[in-house]
Write a structure and sequence with these properties.
Helix 4 runs antiparallel to helix 5 (about 135-150). By secondary structure, this protein is mainly alpha-helical. It is elongated, with a radius of gyration of 20 Å. It contains 6 helices and 2 strands; from the N terminus they run E-E-H-H-H-H-H-H. The protein has a two-stranded antiparallel ribbon. The longest helix has about 45 residues, at about 170-210.
Length: about 230
């Protein structure tokens, strides 16, 4: 399963057969989708900026290895999800931490804080705030800050003036625009997708309780308010 659908793994409300999703599994499915997008974007960016890399004979194989590791990890995560392996906050944290570490190494090889894609740290922190508990989100925030500090320590520079089509200033502007759109698109896409999934689950829970004849089915709490109890 390369691209899990939000409804791939479902549970049934007892005695009704009404299907609904558990939230950690939904989050994992959406994060797998985002990682595939990140892998594709990284491969595209590398192919378009080979001329500006410092010591490409060293940096390119390392970055290809990182992209390969992300792809393998995503395949394994998708297979576990398809097999029904349970998902908890620890697995979600490990998923985000691995992406954070990969992003840090990529930035170290491509200009460090001068790389406009440094703003992608905000994507990981935002996802952590949504899908982890308070402690997990705080730990991921601290990790992101530490990684941001790390990329200031001897990053390999970018030689923007060596690009065959764009000047250094134009290439920097294009990079900033792409990074800005990628950051907003990732955060917005995840939030919209999860909101839709949570609304579907809320409807399924309400229908399940109605079939069981439980009182107050019209006042089912919104699932995102229940995450602290998962």
């Amino acid at each position: 399963m390369l691209w899990p659908k939000p409804s791939d793994r479902s549970w049934k409300y007892p005695e009704t057969g009404v299907v609904f999703r558990d939230e950690p599994t939904m989050w994992m499915a959406w994060m797998i989708r985002l990682r595939w997008l990140a892998v594709s974007a990284q491969a595209l960016v590398i192919s378009l900026t080979l001329n500006v890399l410092d010591r490409p004979a060293l940096t390119v194989p390392v970055m290809i290895g990182i992209i390969g590791a992300l792809a393998v990890a995503n395949l394994a995560a998708a297979d576990r999800l398809e097999a029904g392996s349970p998902v908890d906050r620890a697995k979600l944290f490990n998923h985000l931490w691995f992406d954070l570490a990969a992003l840090t190494v990529m930035l170290l090889l491509t200009g460090g804080p001068a790389n406009p894609f440094v703003m992608l740290y905000a994507v990981h922190v935002t996802l952590g705030a949504m899908v982890l508990g308070r402690e997990g989100a705080a730990a991921l925030f601290v990790a992101a800050v530490a990684c941001f500090g790390l990329i200031h320590l001897g990053p390999m520079p970018l030689h923007l003036d060596q690009h065959p089509l764009l000047s250094g200033r134009a290439l920097a502007s294009v990079g900033q625009a792409v990074a800005f759109v990628a950051t907003l698109g990732s955060i917005g896409g995840f939030v919209v997708g999860m909101s839709e999934s949570l609304r579907r689950r809320e409807t399924q829970l309400r229908d399940a309780r109605a079939r069981l004849g439980e009182p107050g089915t019209e006042d089912v709490p919104h699932p995102i308010l229940e995450t602290s109890h998962l």
